[in-house]
Write a structure and sequence with these properties.
2 copies of one chain form a homodimer.
Chain A lengths: L1 E3 L1 H9 L3 E8 L6 H8 L8 E4 L1 H7 L8 E6 L5 H5 L9 E5 L5 H13 L4 E6 L11 H7 L2 H4 L2 E6 H10 L3 E5 L11 E2 L10 E5 L8 H6 L2 E3 L12 H25 L2
């Protein structure tokens, strides 16, 4: 997978992912000093290549490339990696993308999740509506490299993933856009959910949300309460609100634990 | 001020703002039935005009106009209107935009504020960096008509507005992007702020935030805590998180009040 631009290459070099090569164009040479501490480490051996500006522009995905790129091997995440509780956190908090189609939204949601302390992400292969790859250039730019730092599991079909997560003790939380029918579980406000348990937040398609049967099989359905007559938030803003609420509860819990005798 | 498209015209007709005229093109005629209950009311007298598609396209701001538009007189909001406590709310909650330059961001912030129960908005005239008008076509589209429902006060210079609000008993809350210097008030997390008091949330420029002297003179500086190394949220997502926190506190207070004997 290629990443481009000086900030993204820095992120990649810091991420601990295996680097296959770093590429500088003539113009990109001016970033060589800035990147030197990350590139010139004896313990990591990868080729540093030079190219002409013309060749680089042919390879680049952006219109005005900075002339720096890296070839990165994405971290291989197993299911066990995904559900691990990282040190310093009370429990794992995952985001499961199921049908988010805009690469920019995928990247922004991963960036927001990482910023608010999510411990991993899963990109579910789901029947009708696939999810955009988090490793495409557009998603990588929108995620500002978050996809390199988070454990990201890709390709497991959604029903299998949900079953595995339930068996592993996770509560499945569906971000809902549907009205519940009679007899179904009610919609909860984000603050009515206990985010300190091992949780997986399911985020669906920008327009149609999660498939109804997925919402029904979730342990809780969440909706952000809003004044009547106002349209819903866009997918990225809604994710920001939900992960903020998770961070609020998980942080305040940590503080409370420290203060207790 | 003109608004365009069937949803926006509906919003305008419902808003209680004075309508100067409604305009249908030949193509737009198919929306006449949908709008009829709002247009054909005896108590409101405004001309309903017809035009050719060609003329309408010349007037329209969008590329593929729906052929319906309305000429609306924005609600005149006085300072007294702005600071009023609307029925059913515990206290007024205002958003003050000071230097937000992208019309899309202005619209989205107003829409989010309205969705989470803000009671009014002020667009401050501020020295170097003005704020985009909430009544421009682009801002109106992004706000999905929220600017028509909220009380919006425009044009008061920021220092005067801040003084007036302080005198009226408002706490000034600055959404901060600056590190505090020694001796300055610390940054608070959104959940450390009491949003049930009369509050005005100041939102600054997308890149540079609020002027430092404005942050210093605020009663509290707020920053959304995030994992280190992650860039900040964009302006609209940050506003969504802050107004969500306000709504969370204000709603739970309401619930608590109802449940108490």
């Amino acid at each position: 997978m290629g990443v481009e631009g000086v900030r993204m290459v820095e992120e990649a070099l810091r991420s601990g992912c295996r680097i296959e090569a770093v590429l500088f164009s003539e113009t990109g040479e001016r970033y060589r000093e800035r990147l030197a501490p990350l590139v010139a480490r004896p313990e990591i051996a990868f080729p540093v290549l030079r190219t002409t500006d013309r060749l680089f522009e042919g390879l680049a995905d952006t219109e005005h490339p900075q002339g720096v790129a890296a070839l990165v091997e994405p971290r291989v995440t197993t299911f066990d990696d995904l559900v691990r509780t990282p040190e310093g956190t009370c429990s794992p908090l995952l985001v499961v993308l199921a049908g988010v189609q805009d690469p920019g939204n995928v990247g922004t949601i991963l960036r927001t999740a990482a910023a608010f302390g999510a411990t991993g992400a899963a990109i579910a292969a789901s029947g009708q509506s696939g999810t955009a790859s988090p490793f495409s250039p557009k998603a990588m730019r929108a995620s500002a490299g978050a996809a390199l730092h988070l454990s990201v599991l890709s390709g497991t079909p959604l029903p299998i993933l949900m079953t595995q997560l339930k068996v592993a003790g996770f509560r499945m939380l569906a971000s809902s856009v549907h009205e519940p029918e009679t007899g179904e579980q009610p919609l909860l406000a984000p603050w009515e959910v206990d985010w300190c348990e091992a949780s997986a937040l399911l985020v669906g398609n920008e327009g149609s949300g999660l498939p109804v049967e997925v919402e029904r099989s979730a342990d809780a359905r969440i909706r952000i309460p809003m004044a009547s007559g106002v349209e819903s938030l866009n997918a990225a803003a809604a994710a920001a609100v939900l992960f903020y609420e998770a961070a609020r509860q998980r942080n305040s819990l940590a503080t409370r634990n420290i203060q207790e005798p």
